[in-house]
Design a protein that fits this description.
Blueprint (H helix, E strand, L loop, with lengths): L14 E5 L3 H12 L5 E4 L6 H10 L4 E6 L27 H9 L5 H17 L7 E3 L3 H4 L1 H13 L13
Helix pairs in contact: 4-6
């Protein structure tokens, strides 16, 4: 039966993506966490509000913070010359999930470059003093692209955390 009683109490995790994107996003995440509404957030290591988000998360130790792996928005942490398949000529990410998926499917995205950039993002979060609780990715690319999911699983294992958010959303 779908509603059978469980031996364990039900635990609901409310997660906010994009922590670190900007001051306004950080303010909303921290306010919701302080009010007890939000229990988890995923931080974007390559975005302008990262340092502010880290400081806020350290003030709220009950807030679980994961890594929001990002290959679409902003600029990479890696030298753009070392990841040419992931960036435009100006060194920024392509900023289009559909375009990224097409490029990945056509073999135009180098998997070793993906791993290099995502590892840099995880290293920055870990290096900030936060202990990541989990990972997910911008636009759920780790779920949409099996090759990318394999890289993400390998990285989270390497960095010592074992939870990966796998969204199950109905339309």
């Amino acid at each position: 039966h779908m509603f059978a009683k469980s031996a364990r109490p039900l635990r609901i995790i409310i997660n906010a993506d994009d922590f670190g994107q900007s001051s306004s996003v950080n303010e909303a995440v921290l306010d919701a966490a302080e009010r007890g509404v939000l229990t988890s957030a995923t931080i974007m290591a390559n975005m302008p509000g990262f340092d502010e988000a880290v400081a806020g998360a350290k003030r709220l130790p009950k807030l679980g913070v994961g890594v929001h792996l990002n290959l679409l928005r902003g600029r990479p942490l890696s030298n753009p010359a070392s990841i040419p398949s992931l960036v435009r000529p100006d060194g920024s990410f392509f900023d289009d999930g559909g375009e990224f998926i097409k490029r990945f499917a056509r073999g135009l995205i180098a998997e070793q470059e993906v791993e290099r950039e995502l590892a840099a993002q995880i290293r920055r979060v870990v290096g900030s003093g936060l202990t990541p609780t989990h990972a997910d990715s911008e636009k759920h690319l780790h779920v949409l692209l099996p090759g990318l999911g394999t890289i993400v699983c390998r990285l989270i294992h390497r960095f010592g955390f074992s939870r990966l958010r796998v969204p199950h959303e109905s339309l």
